TrEMBL record:
<comment type="similarity">
    <text>Belongs to the GerABKC lipoprotein family.</text>
</comment>
<keyword id="KW-0472">Membrane</keyword>
<keyword id="KW-0564">Palmitate</keyword>
<protein>
    <submittedName>
        <fullName>Ger(X)C family germination protein</fullName>
    </submittedName>
</protein>
<dbReference type="InterPro" id="IPR038501">
    <property type="entry name" value="Spore_GerAC_C_sf"/>
</dbReference>
<dbReference type="Pfam" id="PF25198">
    <property type="entry name" value="Spore_GerAC_N"/>
</dbReference>
<dbReference type="InterPro" id="IPR057336">
    <property type="entry name" value="GerAC_N"/>
</dbReference>
<dbReference type="InterPro" id="IPR046953">
    <property type="entry name" value="Spore_GerAC-like_C"/>
</dbReference>
<keyword id="KW-0732">Signal</keyword>
<dbReference type="Pfam" id="PF05504">
    <property type="entry name" value="Spore_GerAC"/>
</dbReference>
<keyword id="KW-0309">Germination</keyword>
<dbReference type="InterPro" id="IPR008844">
    <property type="entry name" value="Spore_GerAC-like"/>
</dbReference>
<feature type="domain" description="Spore germination GerAC-like C-terminal">
    <location>
        <begin position="228"/>
        <end position="397"/>
    </location>
</feature>
<feature type="domain" description="Spore germination protein N-terminal">
    <location>
        <begin position="23"/>
        <end position="188"/>
    </location>
</feature>
<keyword id="KW-0449">Lipoprotein</keyword>
Length: 412
C-alpha cells in the first residue's frame, strides 16, 4: 500500500486541480444582455449589435460609476453571429460572454429573409447561447431599436426585458417566444414572436387591444412599445397579428401561459358604454381534430371565467339572472366572432396555424412519416373549424351590501 500511496495521492490531487484550469475572473468578462441582428449592406452579411451591461451600475459600486452609462452598445458587421463575437474583442478589453444573454432583437428586414434562419441556426452551436432567450422582432432595424430603448424606470437592460416578459403573462399582448420554441416550429408550424418598435404612429380610432406596436395612443412613458406578434413560418417572418389576435391565439391553445387579461366589451344593457372585465382561464381548452374526413374538422371549446372590473354605465347585473345571461351571451358572441375572423385570416394568408392544434392532429397517425405526408399545414387551409366559448361569471366587482338575487326578483 505504501508503494502505491504516493502515485494515488498525486492522481487525486491532479483531478481536483484540473477544475480550476478554465476559471474566469468576473472582472475580466463582458456580459452581453441583448443582441440585435440586422441585414448587412452586402449580401450574406449581417450587422450584430451587442448591448453589454455595466456591472457597476445599480450596485454597491455605483458611487464609483456615477458618470458611466448603464450599458455599452457596439455594432459589428460580419458573416455570422459567432464571427461578430470574435471581432468585437478588437475594441473591448474584457472577454465577451453570452452566459447572461436573455433577449435577441431581430430587425424586421432581416426576419423576412431566409438568411435569418441560417444565422440563428448556426449561432446555437455556441454553448453559451441560451435557448430560453426571448425573441423579439422590431419594426425598425434592431440597432436603432436598442439605441432608442432607454426606459425611464429601469437602467439595467436585462432586468427591463425580464420584467416585460413577466408582464406578457398577465396581459397576453405579446406571446412568450423563445429560441427553444422557435427551433421546435421551423418546419411548417407558425411561430409567434414578440413585435416591438420605437417608431410611433398612434391610431386613435381603434378600440381596446386591436393595436399593433407603434399604434397605441400614448404620450410620455418609455420610448418603445411592445404589443402584437410577428408571424414566422419556416424561420422567416410572413406577417403580423395585433394585440387582440395574439391574445386569441393564446386562448385557443390547449395549454398556454396566459394567466389573466383585462379587456372591454359593449355593455349589453347600454351599448353607448363599454364594460371592462378580467378574463381568466377555466379548465384547459378542449381541442378535437378529426382527420378521417375531408376536409378535416376541428372542434375547440374554450372555458373562460369573468370578473367585472369596471362598469361605466352603472348597470347592476346582480339584480337579475336575465341581465347576467345577456352579459354572458354578449361576451360569448364577441369572442366567437373574433376567433372566427382570426381563423379565417390564418387560413387565407398562411400555410399552418399558431394554435398548436397540429399536436392534437398528429395523435391520429401511427408514424411521424404518415403525419408529414398528410401535410397538416395545407389541410388546415380548408379545415372546418368550430370554436365555442363557455363563459362563467365569477364576480361583479366590489359592491356595498349587494341585494340578493332572489329577493330583488321577488320584489320586481
Amino acid at each position: 500500500m505504501k508503494k502505491y500511496g504516493w502515485p494515488i495521492g498525486m492522481l487525486v490531487l491532479v483531478l481536483f486541480l484540473t477544475g480550476c484550469s478554465e476559471r474566469q475572473e468576473l472582472e475580466k468578462q463582458a456580459f452581453v444582455a441583448v443582441i440585435g441582428l440586422d441585414k448587412g449592406e452586402k449580401e450574406h452579411q449581417i450587422e450584430v449589435t451587442f448591448q453589454i451591461s455595466n456591472p457597476q451600475v445599480n450596485t454597491t459600486q455605483s458611487a464609483e460609476a456615477q458618470n458611466e452609462e448603464p450599458s455599452n452598445i457596439v455594432t459589428i458587421t460580419a458573416v455570422d453571429l459567432l464571427s461578430a463575437k470574435e471581432l468585437v474583442q478588437t475594441s473591448l478589453s474584457r472577454e465577451i460572454t453570452f452566459s447572461h444573454l436573455r433577449t435577441i432583437i431581430v430587425g424586421e428586414k432581416l426576419a423576412k429573409e431566409d438568411l435569418f434562419r441560417h444565422v440563428i441556426g448556426s449561432a446555437i452551436i455556441d454553448p453559451e447561447m441560451r435557448r430560453e432567450a426571448i425573441m423579439i422582432v422590431s419594426k425598425e432595424p434592431a440597432q436603432d431599436f436598442i439605441h432608442a430603448n432607454k426606459p425611464t424606470m429601469e437602467t439595467r437592460p436585462h432586468k427591463y426585458y425580464e420584467f416585460m416578459e413577466d408582464n406578457w403573462k398577465n396581459t397576453g399582448f405579446v406571446p412568450i417566444s423563445n429560441l427553444n420554441v422557435f427551433f421546435q416550429r421551423t418546419e411548417g408550424e407558425l411561430f409567434l414572436a414578440g413585435y416591438a418598435t420605437a417608431q410611433k404612429d398612434p391610431e386613435y380610432e381603434k378600440n381596446d387591444d386591436t393595436y399593433l406596436a407603434g399604434e397605441v395612443p400614448q404620450s410620455g412613458g418609455d420610448p418603445v412599445e411592445m404589443i402584437g406578434s410577428a408571424v414566422m413560418q419556416k424561420g422567416r417572418m410572413v406577417g403580423t397579428l395585433n394585440g387582440e389576435e395574439t391574445r386569441l391565439s393564446l386562448l385557443l391553445r390547449r395549454k398556454n401561459l396566459l394567466k389573466t387579461m383585462i379587456t372591454t366589451f359593449p355593455d349589453p344593457l347600454n351599448e353607448d358604454y363599454r364594460i371592462s372585465v378580467v378574463v381568466g382561464q377555466g379548465p384547459k381548452t378542449k381541442v378535437k381534430v378529426n382527420t378521417d374526413r375531408s376536409p378535416p374538422e376541428v372542434d375547440v371549446v374554450v372555458p373562460i371565467v369573468l370578473k367585472i372590473n369596471s362598469n361605466i354605465a352603472l348597470e347592476d347585473y346582480t339584480v337579475s339572472k336575465q341581465r347576467q345571461e345577456a352579459l354572458k351571451k354578449m361576451v360569448k358572441t364577441k369572442m366567437e366572432q373574433a376567433s372566427g375572423e382570426l381563423i379565417e385570416k390564418i387560413q387565407e394568408e398562411y400555410k399552418g396555424e399558431p394554435f398548436v392544434w397540429y399536436a392534437t392532429a398528429r395523435k391520429n397517425f401511427r408514424t411521424t412519416g404518415d403525419f408529414e405526408r398528410y401535410d397538416w399545414g395545407e389541410q388546415f387551409k380548408k379545415a372546418d373549424v368550430h370554436v365555442s366559448f363557455e363563459v362563467t361569471i365569477e364576480s361583479f366587482g366590489e359592491q356595498l351590501r349587494p341585494p340578493t338575487l332572489n329577493k330583488r326578483e321577488k320584489d320586481e
